Automatic annotation (TrEMBL):
Residue span(s) of domain UvrD-like helicase ATP-binding: 178-618
MF terms (GO), sorted A to Z: 3'-5' DNA helicase activity; ATP binding; DNA binding; hydrolase activity
Record InterPro entries: DNA_helicase_UvrD/REP, P-loop_NTPase, UvrD-like_ATP-bd
Keywords recorded for this protein, A-Z: ATP-binding, Helicase, Hydrolase, Nucleotide-binding
GO biological process, alphabetically ordered: recombinational repair
Protein name: AAA family ATPase
Amino acid sequence: MKKEIEAEQAYVSVVYERFDALRDGSYQHFVDGIGAEQSPTHQAKLERDVAAQHHSSRAARLSAAEHGLVLGRLDVDDDAPLYIGRAGIYDEEYDPLLVDWRAPAAIPFYRATPAERLGVRRRRHIHLKGRSVIRLDDDLLALDELGEDEIKHLTGEAALLTSLKSARTGRMADIVATIQAEQDRVIRSGSEGILVVEGGPGTGKTVVALHRAAYLLYTHRERLSKNGVLVVGPNATFVRYIDQVLPGLGETDVVLASMGELYPGVATSRPDTEAAAVVKGDLRMAAVLEQAVRNNERAPIGGMKVVTDRDTYVLDDQTCRRIRDEAQELARRAQQPHNRMRRFVVRAVLEELTSQALTAIESVLDGVEAPDENEDEVDQELSGLIDRDALHQELRSSPGVREALDVLWPELTPEGLLGDLLTDPVLRADVAPQLSVDERNAVQRADRGSWTVADVPLLDEIATLVGELDATLDRLAGQRMLAEMERSRHTEEERQLVSDAYDVAMDMAIDEEVAMPVDAELVLSRYHDTGPDATLSQRARRDREWRYGHVIVDEAQELSPMAWRLLLRRCPTLSMTVVGDIAQTSAPDGVTSWAEVLDPLAAGRWRRARLTVNYRSTEAIMAVASDVLAAGGSDGAAPRAVREGGDLPWSWCVAPDQLATVLPEIATRELAALGEGTLAFVVPVSLLARSMAAIKPYHPGARGAGDPDMLDAQVAVLTSEQAKGLEFDAAIVVAPDEIIADSPRGYSDLYVALTRPTRRLGVVYSGELPAGLSRLDPVGEYRPSA
Ligand SMILES: Nc1ncnc2c1ncn2[C@@H]1O[C@H](COP(=O)(O)OP(=O)(O)OP(=O)(O)O)[C@@H](O)[C@H]1O
């Protein structure tokens, strides 16, 4: 083996040498690009910027691949061996030294098995430390050379098991070295339509979805690097948990966000009651919001008076109705949002008032007798008086006319309208007759101050119905933006460009009553095409109307129907990967059937794939989880664990008042048993504060879900909902009976809690153990020491 390692080392060294040369070359191109003399023409400048950008992203992608660059080697039947790596590397003659793991030629590295070996004789995993080869793991696939036992092997089993047994760091790592065949099929599945990836806990749904993003960006770079990929996770902690994976694979044209972050400019700091969240997520809210907007398109009964300095006019109810109906009909036909139609209403009202003013002037003129000698002069004066345009202008700037317009067709902001709806029960009764009184009451709040996660899809829905922000807000945003630019490091030329765009927008806003938001970075990025100041993900993140090339949704079983509508708006092409497990649904309005959610939204355009093997937990842990799944009445089975055996999961019965106080001692013992790794206490909501208070004095590094350092802590204290999607080396589930009792989907929450650990599982309870946990070992070693 020593000789083999030496031979592989020689190859790996050649690959690294070439890698260094390419990366340095790309970097140099980039430096040359930005350092080039200022070009006189815009075109040349644009080309230079694009080239510099290209070289800079290539250099960044190569740098990300440096660690563990070479993944392995394939020996095939009739050809030279093929080396697979994190990036494609060619020698000077353009012959491949290393094939990118995402290239079609790399497929057999992940899919070949002894039963279907795809021309592969041997697959070799090459383990590197720095740039040195430290170990080789071989799978011999040629059947005539293998025994029956080996034929059943998983792909790259030795490498896989080494990877699975390693202690967790608190951050998800990539799995390019050990992707399994069923996972590889999901990763490389075509980009069109919605792909639903189902699978039990620990089957790699999240990690596979992220590798799929990397694969799609590699395969469709041209298209996706313009629009980017959006990855949506259930909460900010989860997003932090996965945020290293794609940059680690060299992919940065990706926006990672939780649902609460998908409406730019709004932070979701407020909690919702369960009942409120259910109502807000209900599909009926789409019609309620639509009605709330229509409520602001008015034709007052009895018409209205418009008082100006010149005169008092009357818009009778027939005129008001005609203007409103025409505006609504036009909006429907031209698919225009509410605020866009204000200019139509402004024009119609001004036409009407101008006609009334002219009629009034003409009736005055009819009675005027001009003295003969001044006839011409007086005629001129009078014709000046009836200048239609001047009258128009005069009426437009009259406060009385503006007030009337604000009654007939006010400009709306999503925040204003939703604030009204949530704080005003009378308004709700008016626009939401389809909701029951209890449902309408459930969403009532006293103030408008802040927003909840369930408000985000509603704000977004309203934003679609009303269109851009009104001119006043734009003016403020524009001023803020200009001030910001003054402080930032933009060149004089760039500042001028944005300032010009801002002026044009303001002129249009004043002339046409059209709202025109100006985003400095957008203006500059159009100018530069790919400005170095704003990356694609920065620009996409702050643009509500950004349309992504592909959207990945994790823990998708938790999404409400209104949240689905928001996500589909972000990706009208429906190129999406949706990852979830219905057995883990805890949200009361979450998914219970994919068909029920997706058929109404994308009939015939979605398909399923299933992952069946658990890579996270040991066989012993999954046996307990399986029993609980059955006890909770689920017809599905828990996935089979790839890691055989494992420490016996234990239970410990304590007095009710000891449920929190025994935790510090358990933490000490579990950490000792782990040696290295992370520990989580998964507790019912009612015990969260008490558990943390009990543990902290003994383990000051312990952290809760709200703490940004939680993922790096050795001990975490969480609820089942907060733990969803995360994993730890050991998990202690506290008071399982309360976890079950806390929610209508309590057994799903317990299932989630039990499937978090990789190595060790314990349950602390008082009274009776709930059904499904009888397999646990009631161990004596956890008796209190005092
Ligand atoms: N092929 C693989 N090689 C190495 N590790 C893997 C492989 N597949 C999955 N894993 C590991 O298994 C663990 C579980 O993966 P992941 O979190 O993606 O599962 P999941 O299906 O999303 O789970 P959950 O439903 O509980 O959120 C992770 O640590 C992941 O890195």
